[in-house]
Specification:
This protein is of the alpha/beta class. It contains ten helices and 26 strands. It folds into three domains: 1-270, TIM Barrel; 375-466, Immunoglobulin-like (Sandwich); 470-571, Immunoglobulin-like (Sandwich), CATH 2.60.40. It has an eight-stranded parallel β-sheet with strand order 10-9-8-7-3-2-1-11. Strands 20, 21, 22, 23, 24, 25 and 26 form a seven-stranded antiparallel β-sheet that branches. A six-stranded antiparallel β-sheet has the order 12-13-14-19-16-17. The longest helix has 17 residues, at 189-205. The radius of gyration is 27 Å and the shape is globular.
């Protein structure tokens, strides 16, 4: 290997094997080692993730996961009636959400997953899955399959299932609602058979089609396995393999999981700690504690894993007001929405939808459907907390960049961003649009300045090259501003009879929109200097419009599944 200069003097590679004894003549293979060199560390991280995904046959779903989850409003106290009420609101609003996820709280004890709380779910979990399917959605269920609560029937009747430490005591992996949860020993054949029977019941008998598997790190807890040749990583992976073999092509959402051993077995993966109704942790400040700030940090730093190892799950989005069981201020809520939307991964709502006001529900609609494409934390290796999350977009009709610029601090600041940092040509002029403030910032060159960048605020800015022709600038129906809802843009010219028989040329720009549900928004066009708007139409009807900054035409409309917006301009 030839290296330039003194890149490094020595390279050590160490494989840890949890003390597994290798007998004479035996072999014990580590995972593969990859070495790559380059000047762009983010590109190297992306290359590593892509190679790992190829090597381990990563499962990449065709479309990102969307749905509603019970957890972050009810925190385990929801009932069957609450689930159905939210299901009905989804249908009434025609929200493009596919999955209904029953999170923690349905079971009588962790480990007794097929024993449902009859008071909260009187008709049982199979009946609820059937109800969800009748509504045209996918039933999903949460469980922590690699552990047993100390009060569970499983722990009482099968103490031999529990992983033991060197002193023979069961290994406690976490405390759940005040009770100890013990790791299961997944090297045991009887535990493996129990796991198969469990998922046959949940999948085949109850009919659930997506499984959120939480606290899965418990399978990799330090302990003495019954099979002394089993490492912690192997125990974890064997557990996932058994579940995958049992459920077939149904979906697995990993959560609380060691990342490497899960590749190729999960369809989506939580890539950070829980979000929260609070911006900062409310307990000890540990980076694994529930916190919107900590969850969003991981959304940025692990964005490069998306569509390379699995589909990223940044955790649930919460858009409710502060007076509805939340402590997040408007800027913090918008930051959560912005970063989840730009991440391109799963979008799971976890508000109580019947109590959500329309003014807040619009934020959820503006990141549905997910783009499927992850933005890049372009300053990932420059700042401890990345501040620039950039999503480049290119279609047959245009190209643009959507940037999430984040102020992590508790104080208002000034943020300046050079075009070169964003990969934009500093010699070229760009239209800049402030998405959340619905404000056109003009034609800009070289750099953009955010004069009052408020605490915990993410400014979402669109950059689109300026042109000497009429162009679609943006729409407000989706955070990606054209990537999901604009299906086609067509341009044509016509000759029209003018005054006294003279003919004049009129340019018509036609935009076809398509998006599930009903949503109020705007379509913005940029016209060249000296250009005039002859007419604006929505679905063939003349529509009111307004002019901003002499060159931006704004057409408002209600998008109900599909619409066609046209403007006619002349010079």
């Amino acid at each position: 290997m030839q290296l330039d200069g003194d890149a490094f003097a020595r390279l050590d590679a160490t494989a840890f094997a949890d003390g597994v004894r290798v007998e004479p003549g035996e072999t014990f293979a580590s995972e593969k080692l990859m070495l790559a060199f380059g000047d762009d560390p983010l590109a190297l991280a992306e290359r590593y993730a892509a190679r790992l995904g190829e090597t381990m046959h990563a499962r990449i779903p065709a479309s990102p996961l969307t749905g509603w989850c019970t957890w972050y409003y009810f925190f385990g106290e929801n009932t069957e009636r609450d689930v159905i009420a939210n299901l009905e609101r989804i249908r009434a609003e025609r929200l493009p959400l596919d999955v209904i996820l029953i999170d923690d709280g349905y079971q009588t004890a962790d480990g007794d997953w097929t024993s449902a709380n009859a008071e909260k779910f009187p008709h049982g979990m199979k009946s609820l899955a059937d109800e969800i399917k009748r509504a045209g959605l996918t039933p999903a269920i949460w469980l922590a399959p690699f552990a047993a609560n100390e009060n569970s029937q499983l722990a009482r009747e099968h103490p031999e299932f529990l992983l033991r430490d060197a002193n023979g005591e069961p290994v406690c992996s976490w405390i759940h609602w005040g009770a100890k949860c013990f790791s299961l020993d997944l090297s045991r054949a009887d535990v493996q058979n129990w796991l198969r029977d469990l998922f046959r019941t949940l999948s085949d008998d109850w009919g659930y089609e997506l499984f959120k598997l939480d606290f899965t790190y418990t399978a990799a807890a330090p302990g003495v396995h019954a099979d002394l040749k089993t490492t912690r990583a192997q125990a974890l992976r064997r557990g996932f393999e058994i579940i995958r073999e049992t459920i077939g092509d149904k979906k697995i959402l990993g959560c609380g999981a060691p990342l490497g051993p899960s590749v190729g077995l999960v369809d989506a993966m939580r890539i950070g700690p829980d979000v929260s109704i609070n911006w900062e942790p409310i307990f000890h400040g540990d980076p694994t504690e529930p916190s919107t700030a900590y969850a969003m940090r991981n959304t940025l730093t692990r964005a490069f894993l998306h569509n390379r190892l699995w589909q990223n799950d940044p955790d649930c989005v919460l858009v409710r007001r502060r007076d509805d069981e939340s402590a997040l201020v408007l800027n913090e809520m918008r930051t959560m929405v912005s970063l989840i939307g730009l991440s391109g991964g799963a979008v799971l709502s976890s508000d109580n939808l019947p109590s959500i006001r329309r003014g807040r529900l619009k934020y959820l609609k503006q990141i549905l459907p997910p783009t499927g494409r992850a933005a890049r934390a372009i300053d990932l290796f420059e700042n401890e907390l990345p501040r620039l999350f950039a999503l480049p977009a290119k279609t047959e009709w245009s190209e643009w960049l959507v940037l999430g610029a984040l102020n992590w601090s508790d104080k208002t600041t000034t943020t300046e961003i050079a075009f070169e940092t964003l990969g934009l040509d500093p010699r070229r002029e760009y239209h800049v649009y402030n998405y959340w403030h619905r404000r056109y910032l003009g034609v800009v060159r070289e750099r953009v300045k955010i004069a009052r960048h408020q605490p915990h605020e993410t400014r979402v800015l669109l950059f689109k090259p300026a042109s000497d022709r009429a162009e679609l600038l943006t729409t407000t129906f989706h955070l990606a501003q054209g990537l999901c809802e604009v299906k086609h843009v067509e341009r044509r010219e016509e000759l029209r009879a003018g005054k006294r028989g003279a003919q004049k040329s009129v340019e018509i720009l036609k935009v076809e929109l398509e998006k599930k549900g009903v949503q109020r928004g705007e379509v913005l066009f940029a016209i060249p200097k000296g250009g005039k708007v002859v007419a604006a139409r929505v679905d063939g009807r003349v529509s009111p419009h307004r002019i901003v900054d002499k060159s931006i035409v704004v057409v408002g409309l209600t998008l109900d599944e599909r619409a066609v917006v046209e403007i006619e301009t002349s010079t």
